[in-house]
Amino acid sequence: MFEGLVLLGQSVLGFMDPTSLAYTFGATLLGILVGCMPGLSATLAISLLTTLTIKLPAHDAILILVCAYVGTIYGGSRTAILLNIPGTAANAAACLDGYQLARQGKAGRAMGIATTGSVAGSIFGILCLATITPWLAEKALAFQSYEFFWLALFGVMMSGSLTGEDPLKGWIMGMLGLFVAQIGQDGIHALERFSFGDPNLAGGLSLIPTLVGAFGASEVLTVMSERFSRPKVHAVDSIIPRFRDVIVHWKTVLRSGVIGVYIGILPGVGEDMAAWSSYAAAKRASKHPEEFGKGSVEGLIAAETGDNASIPGGIIPALALGIPGSAPAAVLLAAMIIHGVNPGPMLMIQHPQFVYDVVAMNLLATIGMLFFGLFLVKPLLKVLLVPRTYIMPIVFLLCTVGSFAIASRLFDVYTMLGIGVIGFLLRRFGYQMAPFVLGLVLGDLLDKSFRRGLVLSGGELEPFFARPISGLLAAIVLLTLLLNIPPIYRLYERAKLAVFGRFSRAA
Amino acid sequence: MTPPESASGHGGLTRAARHPAQPADFLFGLFWAVLGASIAWGSWTMDRLERQGVEPYAVPGLVPGLLGLILLGFGVILALRGWRGRTAAQGEVAPSEGASDAQGKAEPWRIGLALLLVLGFVLGLLGQGPPFWLCAFLFVFLAIALFEFPERRAAGTLPRGLALAFLVAACAAALVTFVFQEVFLVRLP
Q1: Domain that holds residue A495
Q2: Are residues A478 and A387 in the same domain?
Q3: How far apart are CA A215 and CA A40, in angstroms?
Q4: CA–CA separation, A488 vs A165, rounded Å?
Q5: What's the gap in Å between the CA of A173 and the closest CA on chain B?
Q6: Which H/E stretch holds residue A184?
Q7: Residues in chain A within 8 Å Cβ distance of B13
Q8: A387 and A504 in one domain?
Q9: Does one domain contain both A374 and A319?
């Protein structure tokens, strides 16, 4: 306990130099600006910044990425409140009450509430990050290949189930991501797979250009293909947050924080689901549910607390298990690996300081978020007036240069473009990129864990199902799959009705 | 916009909402099935490293082969669903990553132009002779000028639009080239 506090104190002090503080505030501000722009997501911001910070020392680069991540999710609430357009998917729930408050002439108050809710959620998540990560990493030391195989599959399946409108398409994208990760030399015997003799493919598709293509180029193409109209921004009143709003709704803040962290920890489920779940739970528990959707302060606090709490929540399994909790966390994980940090159960043993460094990075990002949320609201709104036709070509230019800069190979640029164009076309038919990204990041772990597990068990599948945690994960994966088959789902519904109907009649 | 039922904390299990299968699902299903079968076949014919004493359950083609078979299965289900035109059980109705993803807002000419510009820039210009700053300038200038053309022409502000596009493109090309070439020491294509 005290050892952890000492390590955290050292980490915070370690960032108290002008360069780190400049990176903190610069990256948070950049994140907020990106978040303000509808169409640019947190995943895009992190993947693009990964390429731009590749030459920096690991700590500085990861600090920038974490700050940009936090800033982007927070920045998206601005457009949700002022334009009824979520800046990122995570802020869609904030539209419901934030925009209604803006229509009532309370846009400033709504932004103040969003700021305090975001800060409260972020602080709660940071506390969980500092306490749960070491505990989870210690427990995970007992994990073997069997558990890691199911965790990787669980992440891809959950992401496929929850990030789009059609689980089948989500799973297809997840499988595609897992397959793309198999291209190149295999991780055990170094045999080239699906490289067709091409030396560029021998090492596999580079992770970062592929991620930049999946989220950067495909999003740029999506936004460029849509008509842009200059938004009408609501007038902004006082943005000084009323702490009374938060104190009165402390139960909502706490509940949303817990939900946000829990959903963040679930592999592959992102901030958007955390915001919606927190919002729905707050509505159920509220004394005034009829106000939700009509400018409820409680609803806005719930949504913003939930999504921000899920950011550190998503980083917890990424650090402790090497399994990202969300698509942006997947890119963050990839960036850590590129910078020589190997997240997983051994991290707490080999580099315990790094875990607390990430906690400190989140803390600094939250301070940056609070600063810009309080003092730079009106100037930041100017970014909403910049036409997207100016921004998108420049973002694509950065995607291109960033992909090239990693290894000075034009092949990486072609990879980015190819994945981007395919991703753009698939998105138009309801295929989401988040499961693909999860599959891409987890593919190597899944492959190695499955084959190592079989080697350990002498080819027997039994340990994959008989060990307690393996069995639980296997059951969840199989249930997720089965309950999305309509006849089985109908059977389940009938059985549920029969059981609960009998109980309610008896009551 | 309403929160999804899934947000009630029951995952996707409580939702009975359905949506019609898309017409393209059948063709996509066939494509995934063929891709999955090809992957499975490629994995089956892959070197099994028997001479190195690798056990059959640890061969490099095992996982890709299984993934190919799963993709084949999912592709067949999607194709059948598309063929029958039946409604399919929905997954979570959560807003997707990339909030601008709503379909129907995109205009065909914009899609075509966007693809033409990025493909032309990467495949036609980069690394084909012209210096990077010129390629970058041309791409950004053309993108801004062409996408704004209808609105600018209708508003009678075409010269102003072209001047702005020129300015933005020149600044972007110069800044990106300077930062990457002089600060990050990247030899640009």
Answers
A1: 467-507
A2: no
A3: 9
A4: 19
A5: 9
A6: strand A184-185
A7: 483, 489, 492
A8: no
A9: yes
Helix A42-52 vs helix A18-36: angle between axes, to the nearest 10 degrees?
Answer: 140
A496 shares its domain with A363: no
Residue A39, pLDDT > 80, answer no
Q: What is the pLDDT of residues A133-174, one digit of tens each?
A: 999 998 899 899 999 999 999 989 888 887 777 899 999 999
Reported in sequence order, the residue ranges of chain B that DSSP labels E, i.e. its strands, are 18-20, 87-89
Nearest to A397 among B2, B103, B140 (CB): B140
Contact B7 A41 (CB under 8 A): no
Would you report the helix, strand and coil content of chain B in percent, each value rounded to 5? 65, 5, 30
Task: Give the global pTM.
Answer: 0.84
Number of folded domains that form chain A = 2
In this structure, the answer to whether residues A370 and A475 fall within a common structural domain is: no
* Domain identity same for A407 and A483: no
Task: Please give the structure tokens belonging to residue A4.
Answer: 């952890």
DSSP for A441-493, written as a single string? HHHHHHHHHHHHHHHHTTT-SHHHHHSHHHHHHHHHHHHHHHTTSHHHHHHHH
ipTM entry: 0.84
pLDDT tens, residue by residue, B118-169: 999 999 999 888 999 999 999 999 999 999 999 899 999 999 999 999 999 9
- Tokens, residue A476: 């969840």
> What six digits make up the tokens of B49?
């490293």
- CA–CA distance, B161 with B158 (Å, rounded to integer): 5
As a whole number of angstroms, the distance between CA A205 and CA A183 comes to 7
CA angle A495, A498, A504 (to 5 degrees): 140
Same domain membership, residue A185 and residue A103: yes
Residues 6+ away with beta carbon under 8 Å from A24: A15, A63, A67, A361, A364, A365, A367, A368
Query: In the predicted model, is pLDDT for residue A410 greater than 80?
Result: yes
Following CA atoms B15, B20, B23, B28 in sequence, which dihedral angle do they give, to the nearest 10 degrees?
10
> Do B3 and A276 lie within an 8 Å CB cutoff?
yes
Q: Are A276 and B121 in contact (CB < 8 Å)? A: no
Q: Answer for the pair A412, A406: CB distance below 8 angstroms, yes or no.
A: yes
Q: How far apart are the first and last CA of chain A?
A: 48
Nearest CA in chain A to B27: A429
3 state SS for A28-93: HHHHHHHHHCCCCCHHHHHHHHHHHCCCCCHHHHHHHHHHHHHHHHHHHHHHHHHHCCCCCHHHHH
A235 three-state secondary structure? coil
Same domain membership, residue A473 and residue A461:
no
Please state the domain extents for chain B: 18-92, 108-183
